[in-house]
Batch of 3 targets.
Target 1
Amino acid sequence: MKSNYLLILFLFLSSFGFAQGYDVGGVVKEAGSGLPIPGVNVQVKNSTIGTSTDMDGRFSLKGVAADATLVFTYIGFKNREYKVVASNSALSISLEEDSKVLDEVVVIGYGTQKRREVTGAVSVVDSKTLEALKPVRIEQALQGTVSGVNVTTTSGAPGAALDIRIRGIATNGENRPTTIIDGYVGELGLLNPNDVESITVLKDAQAAIYGTIGANGIILITTKSGKKNSKARISYNSYTGFQETSRTLPTLNATEYALLLNESYANGGNPVPFPNVSGLGKGTNWQNEVFSISVPIINHDISFSGGSDKITYAVSGSHLDQEGIIGESKSGFLRNTARVSLGADVSEKLKLKTNVIYTYFNRKSLNENGLGSVLFNALNTPSTLSPYDANGDFTKVPTNTGLGIEIINPLAQMANTYNDYNFKKVNGNFGLDYKVFKDFTISSSIGFNTSNSESKSFAKQILYWINPSDKVFDVLRSSVSQSAINDNDYSFDLFGTYTKKVAEDHNITATIGNTIFKQFGNGLFATGFDVPYNSWEFADIALTKGISETVPNSSYNYDERRLSYFARGQYDYKGKYLFSAMIRRDASTKFGPGNKVGYFPSFTAGWVISDEGFFGEDKIINFMKLRGSYGTLGNDQIPNNGYISQLSGEATYVFDDVLVNGLATGQTPNPNLKWEEARKFDVGLDFKLLQNKVSIVADYFIDTRADLLIPFIPVSGINGTAAPGAASPTINAGTVRNSGLEFSIDYKNKFSDNFSMSVGYNVTFLKNEVLEVNNGIGYIEGGAFGVGQLPPSRMEVGKPIGYFFGYQTDGIFQNQAEVAAHPSQLALGAEASPGDLRFVDVNGDGILDPNDRTSIGDPIPAATMGFNLQMNYKNFDFAVYTFASVGNDMVRNYERNLTDVNRLNYVLDRWTGEGSTNSTPRVTTGATGNSTFSSYFVEDASYLRIQNMQLGYSLDPKYSEKAGITKVRLYAGVNNLYTFTKYKGFDPGASNGSPIGGGIDYGFYPIPRTYLLGLNINF
């Protein structure tokens, strides 16, 4: 009986103990603004039980004892302890910013630094912004969110590259910043955006720790990792949507086209081609034919993360499938990624970490811009032609003097385009940190990238008109071209970090180390002729038996290396007076003997004024810091082996009256190549106001780039640079200066328990000026306009790089008297007549000739800005992101200057008689100088774009947590909603990527407008 009583007592006590376990959850917010804080570590004190908050600051823990204490910790905020109370299982925890640890830790290269102690121009984009933007490519997240950064599209086609410029264009060579992913050099465009925790942009001398690769700025990527003492977390994100073109151009319908063509022929003294225009109607809108609607895009992303006291892990995978708004699957893009991140505390002294990313993508593409692109043909093909003939075949565009030999049916062009590109890449790093003693840690890391790509393109035998070679795109002999490329690099970093606090007030951090970097790879290219059955199905070199008169095969291999040593010292007194100095020594095999080594020093300093005694307890200004930096950085991003001569060119020799294929010199060598040097100066102010609700950052900068490395600079043709495989040399040939002002302001506030808001605005004012061009003639030309005309862009002293150089117009000749009083325009193509453009005699010599060309436009914007808004009301969230560019010009070059092509409807306002207009010239089949490159073709391309708008709803956790789900969020969004601009073309923000000629619009594939429906679920 006694034992039964003991059993009953034991069961009672056990059930009582079990009953005291509570499910506790809630949200963690900032004390000042009331905004949720993601990533807060929530730990049950003196136990291994813990978790972390999600993107909305929410957390949940099960089975927590009634007397347990929860510890909330997050960098930049004071720790907070909370004792669990049975009556309160839904918590609202507020964390206060720690004045000693203000703001988050920032990655600065080979280390981190507290935000308040950063003395350089550094900007950060966090995961919350990425969550709101939902970019297809991670580069898109920088547009409008970071001052001083401009992202331009080369094409709106899926998978097309984006160009990033930090604080302007500094050279005619490589301008793209270097991307560092978790410590190793990587490729930004291949990342899955959902794998990224934060993006840090180093814009000034702070990047000097990277030496030769830092001249164009550094983008540091931190990928997501697991958190210690947190339970396993599963996150699934998906969106699906459809795309459409964001813009079509107003071309002439069939009746308008016929009437205008009749007028043109009549003005030229020729019989009209359409004696009867009745019945033509609107005809064919070729843009509607080539642009598809409701084009699908779908993305899935799943991740697993968590950790114990010693181990952290994060595993993720993603799938993106996007078709193109032109050609659909013919310009489709598919990307799959997988990532594994592990961290382990082997002992109190040794920590290991690894991060490996696998990327696969497949891309198909069309001729996307330029003379002969699909859009070029859609804009210029007459609307009187139908897409198909009576037999159901593609209609052929006639060849005559009025339509030329380039324009073909764009539908036939798409149908006969066949190509396929597959890319596979594995990249990542393995690293360890070993604490030798309390203040000294040695770190080492091996980073690697290895990629393989294969491409195949098939040229189908086809005639686009009647006779062979009537059209330039006629293929008289079928062929298939294939390539296989293998690119690799690895880096080994070894550095030590010494951190010491002396007498409580002096803080010292010293870093010293070295980096070994090697790039190597090879490529093989081959072409086979006479494809069996003239079919893509049999397009493989193994099946071709045709013989070529030229060399159809080629290959290359390369091996480039850098050996670097670096050191950095950081000192602060009471966290108030800040100073750092860096130096890096780089040796690169891209330069010849005597020029291989470069030294890159830099200095930064800061003063936290708000910590001074005289500042007092200002209730308006909570934090103020003055900072400055100056340093030199390098650039060696040029073609390989430019300082030596190689037999990489093709040549044909005559031996015994027989033509023999052989080799010739390739790129003209330049043994005097040396480092391109960037001298960066920056002074800035950081503020926090109104209880830290308002943050202001302002910077003034001067970036002077000397000894520009300009590849393929034009030289005399006597050197044979026009031969196949040959090229002009790379030389150090100039100096460019970018100067400007950056300003950003952010406001965060919680107005009530239900409503909070975050608003941000940033603007960058930029001036670009070429200071030197040392190539013998004082300028470098580039770009193209029309057919057979002089290059329209220049790099010249005293002007912005890539400015437009042509004839200035002064309205329209209204009568013959005005023509007679003006200098002859015969040298521009024909004598002028009333209704023609009037060109300005710039030099006043009474003769209009190429000497009268002048500056007529600048493709570089005078200012760029972003305005971003986020709001939360109860369970709803709303975000909108915008970007604006002001003062940039573009050249309208997507119209073929022939008489019978279709035109945009602005020509309906043409000159038809004296006083009718003073802006648009007459139409005629006769010879004129109106098509000569002039300011008539240069337009203001300023624009404001609503980049992203998103509305979301999060299910109340008290419902979802019953199913073990911590978060359920549904959202709808629109990317590239609308662009406000006066520019006539498809995309005022596009560029072909070339610093000289980049502002010339050849008919850019427009960025699609994308409507999305998405779902986020966390378990």
Target 2
Amino acid sequence: MHVSARRRGLSWQRLPLAQLMSALVLGLLALLSAGPGAMYSVLLGTGVALLPTLYFLWRGLQVRGGRRPRISVANFYQAAVGKFGLTVALFVVVFVSVPPSNPTFFFIAYVAAQSVHWLTPWLLRDRPTP
């Protein structure tokens, strides 16, 4: 199969699944090391990262292909702004209504989920590392 054909077939579900896997691993480590309160903080931190990512994927991938590039770029920018706004709103909601019992684990989980998002292009590439 040609490389471009394989890239077109890449599934957008890989990013949220990778973020969920990082949440499960961190949640288990938090549960074993600091108890259920820390695991709850990890789940909150991952949720604050995962929900905006799902919004970004939904909004940014509405128009696919090169048929209407102007609309695709507009959707991408609207998705990025929406993701930022949703992230800020979720941080406010979490810290006002449901304060995490362990903020350290909350921020570690958030940064880990964001790191998975940032590393996704590297994780999905087809060529070996030089």
Target 3
Amino acid sequence: MKTETNQIFKKRYYLLLFFSFLLQQSYAQEQIKITGKITSATNREAIPFANILIKNTTSGTTSDLDGNFSIMAQPGQILVVSYQGYKTKEANITKERVVNIALVEDILALNEIVVVGYGSQQKKDLTGAISVVKAEEIQKRQVTTVAEGLQGLVTGVKVRGGGRPGQEAGIEIRGLKNLQGTNPLYVVDGLITTANRDFNPNDIESIQVLKDASAAAIYGSRAANGVIIITTKKGKKGPLKIEVSSKTSLTNMPTYNLMGTEEFAKFNNQAYDNAGIPRQNLNMAVNTDWQKEVFSTGLIQDYNASFSGGGDNSTFFMSANYFGNKGTVVSTDFDRVSFRVNSSGTKGIFSIGQNLAISNSKTDEMSGNPIIDVYRLLPTIPVYDSSNPGGYGYGKSDVANTFGTNPLALANFLDTTNENFRIKGNIWSEIKFAPYLKYRFNFGYETSFDSYNFIRKLGNWTLNQPFEQSFINQNKGRSQTQLLENTLTFNKEFGKHSVTALVGQTFQKDNYNQIYGTKRNLLVNPSTGSYFDVLDLGDSPEVGGFRQEAALTSYLGRLEYNYDDRYLFNAVFRRDGSSKFSDGNKWGNFPSTSLGWRVSNEPFFKIDFIKDLKLRASYGELGSGNIGNYEYQGFINTFGAIVMGNGQILYPSATQVRLANSELRWEKLKQTNFGMDLGILNNDLRLTAEYFIARTEDVLFGFPILMTTGNDGGNPISNAATVENKGYEFELAYNKRINDFSFNASLNFTKLNNKLVSLGNGQNEHIQGNTITRTGNSVGMWFVLQTDGLFQNQDEIDNYVSSNGTVIMPNAKPGDIRFKDVNDDGQITNEDKDIIASPWPEFEMGFNTGAQYKGFDFSMNWIASHGATVYNGFRSTVDRFDDDSNYRAGIQPWTPENPNTDFPRIVKGTTLNARGDSDRFLESGDFIRLKYVGFGYNLPESILEKVGLTSARLSLSAQNILTITKYKGLDPEFSNGNIFERGVDIGSFPNLRTYSFGVEFAF
């Protein structure tokens, strides 16, 4: 029995030894130490704090500040590496002890955090129409303002800019919302402000464009034209990081094809001969190319440096920027110097931070309009003429009958500068009472010191100009904005339920004051010949000044609800009170609601290749009070005087010079939006589609009224018109990486139609220039005479009769334009004008693509517009011949020997051929433009390590170098700020061809 027991014990002993050996072998396998580095596949920079997890276990670690990591793992297991903004990547563990992993940036990441105003949401949970723009897409372009950089990147956003130094682009979100062309609201780091030419685009971290009412409703009365939220860069935990960039750009002006002296003299003499007028005594010894004299190659310099870092409890970011733009047109320059400091810190439940930006910008603004003058001036006029006051050449009776102005003389004799020193920023603090409840206080402050200086020196620049003494005009203004905000946010999950609630109160106060003065007969330094530019050196003083104030008080709330990541609900309410309205109309309420259904998360949804499908619907009401501060009050002139009594005594008096409307109320936008988000092919391919209807009621606008009413101070504002916009938006984006090669492309499409539902005030139409705004049609439709070819002989003239046999154009001659007698009254008058075309495009598109291979990258941006009809102001001058200007080179006017042409006979003087209110000068505004193309190279790590850098990049790019269009003006992408004449191109500054070289490095 004992022997048997010993045998059983020995068997068990050997089994224990065997299993112990197996365990030791298994344990030994688990103890393999894996080391490696997590980097970005885009720029090979280290990714700190990336999550590394062994799949199907709870074991994991994070990368350090340099992206390095180490973890104990077993061969055959899988490492799962993730980091916000990058696609999650898996790596199989083999016997290799070093595993380096490059993460691909997730351009379409659904977990991306989106700033939505007084808070943030994950992109996948959005129920409103919000577009996110990557900051680097803007920063790689050479732009002065943020708006320029958005062009072609966002559906529903129309941007029109120009190349004049310091020029700010016009931007519309989802079409025309009112009749004033107001820009959207900018929110920078929580501060209600602007992102104009004083703002440094290099500081941008992220941009969100809130397009529909539900997304923008949290900003209530100021959000009717859309909201652009900008978050600037912040510091990150880690050692000091220094980044420096330099970009130098050459700019080139497009030019007209104009005649030289010989060709000009031929046609000018022909026009005078046809009119029976003695020819001009043209100076054939002069052949001035005014474009060469006025235009030159421009230079842009953009230098930026930033410093950032932080520890466990605090971070900081500092930047400095110089932006200088020497214009392509004489006497146009822009300079900006800006600084920024952002910092934050946390201690327990308390956090505090600040954002501060300081900038100084100076603009040398051109006087007159050289874009027009270069074709108004004749090639037979010399640049300089000592016989003229001031010594410059310009028009002369019977020699050069033109009132064109010499731009070089204007640049010398009219000197205009505008300087702005601006400080803006905010201080915020947060207290977390619990993980799900926090209070936030935000104080924002902005002040601007504005200085405008204008000097008129002695000298002339145009024909028949009367003598004017020298003078100086200076304006000094200061604006202040104070913002106080208090918000309380609750955010908690209850099982499958997630609730976020926000309540808050804000107060904003704006002040602006200005003083101005003028003095004449300025003193001149006898040694240098320069004018003294201070107000105390002159006579005939004039002084004045004014002050304006406005205040806005608001209460706001938002509720977000998410059930099981399938059903989404969002509701917003804001109540605003403004001092711009009378007591009975100060307050306005602006509610919105939106719903989302993530169909792809439903149990019944079994379509594997569709990774994400979300349907959205929203309705909201927004407001606008974009009027002057005192529009509801009467405007009184207190400088009057009246003679009364037998002694004819002069008494001071006051009179109301502008009628006022005390019943002004909020303009209100009501918008409905339907959207769909679709992701397929593992979300590499995504489609976003939107349909919206926006209706603005009680539009605030001042239509002209008769001065016999007693109104003599501008047109009084009233709530009158109703404007409606309907539109579609589509965006298709693809992103893919295969080993060292990555590719991305996106196509966006916007189609919208605007309609004037009613004009109000008993009016049905508003005519301005060659446009008409009529109830039932789009704003600013073309309202002109219609041409019908040329008369080839007298018989055609005699046979062109009305229905009752009346010769319609009896005074015409062969070669003249035949106009349509629309009303059949036997004559051509303004009654024959009709609506024939629209200045609004039928659709606009943007195409963006990029590729990366190892250290090389390429990107390209195209924009296109189709369907707009525009008015060529250049041709309306040079092709008319009724007034002296230069002419287009190569024209072939009608003559008996040259009847096969569409260009009428030329004649000096007023004829129907010279009418500018016909369709003769209307052209297609269609264009396709290569807006940006760029190439870059990131230096390899082997080189960087030798010079002590963490990254270095070289880039070459070009903008506006290719435009496909039939438009005969300088630029089909011109900008006109007049809502009713937005399709009119008369002297609009064109977009410039720009060639840039950039260097960036970090250490």
